[in-house]
């Protein structure tokens, strides 16, 4: 649900992103346009549990994800700027409910940085995030 929640939020953030058109969950579809954004879950941190039974859901989850932007080399600066705009929209977000999940905070854990070209020589930029979300 994390990537779906973040994707829906970004699609409504005024950045010109549309789910399934230029905003995707990993991987980028083969038929996606050169200028596109992809969301990727990455390893998070240890969950925090309350004082309930041992098999209760965690009170807080620390999920992590990346946002990758890409575009052709002649549009590299626009792609980098989009990554920075996304960072500004998500960094320090919360508390907010996205979908049915309460996100206590979303924060950038890195600046925007160059990831290298993809297999079609499109430039890729990435920014990493942590989302602290509640289960109750």
List keywords for this structure.
single chain, 136 residues, alpha+beta, STM4215-like, seven-stranded mixed beta sheet, 2 helices, 18% helix
Short structural summary:
This protein has 136 residues and is of the alpha+beta class.
Walk me through what this model shows:
- The chain has one domain: STM4215-like (2-Layer Sandwich), CATH 3.30.2000.
- Helix content is 18%, strand content 41%.
- It contains two helices and seven strands, in the order αβββαββββ.
- Strands 1, 2, 3, 4, 5, 6 and 7 form a seven-stranded mixed sheet that branches.
- β6 and β7 (123-134) form a beta hairpin.
- The mean pLDDT is 92.
Would you identify the regions where 5 or more consecutive residues have pLDDT less than 50? none
Order of helices and strands: HEEEHEEEE
Q: Separation of termini?
A: 15 Å
SS strand fraction: 35-45%
Average pLDDT: 92
Which CATH architecture? 2-Layer Sandwich
List the SSEs and their pairings.
Blueprint: H1 2-11, E1 23-25, E2 36-48, E3 60-71, H2 76-90, E4 96-98, E5 101-108, E6 113-117, E7 123-134
Parallel strand pairs: 1-2
Antiparallel strand pairs: 2-3, 3-7, 4-5, 5-7, 6-7
């Amino acid at each position: 649900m994390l990537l779906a929640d973040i994707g829906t939020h970004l699609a409504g953030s005024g950045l010109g992103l549309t789910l399934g058109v230029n905003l995707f969950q990993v991987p980028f579809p083969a038929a996606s346009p050169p200028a596109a954004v992809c969301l990727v879950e990455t390893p998070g941190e240890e969950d925090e549990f309350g004082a309930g039974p041992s098999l209760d859901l965690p009170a807080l989850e620390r999920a992590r994800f990346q946002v990758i932007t890409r575009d052709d080399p002649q549009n590299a600066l626009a792609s980098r700027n989009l990554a920075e705009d996304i960072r500004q929209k998500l960094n320090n977000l919360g508390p907010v409910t996205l979908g049915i999940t309460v996100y206590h905070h979303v924060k950038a854990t890195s600046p925007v940085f160059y990831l290298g070209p993809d297999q079609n020589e499109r430039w890729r930029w990435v920014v990493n995030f942590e989302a602290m979300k509640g289960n109750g």
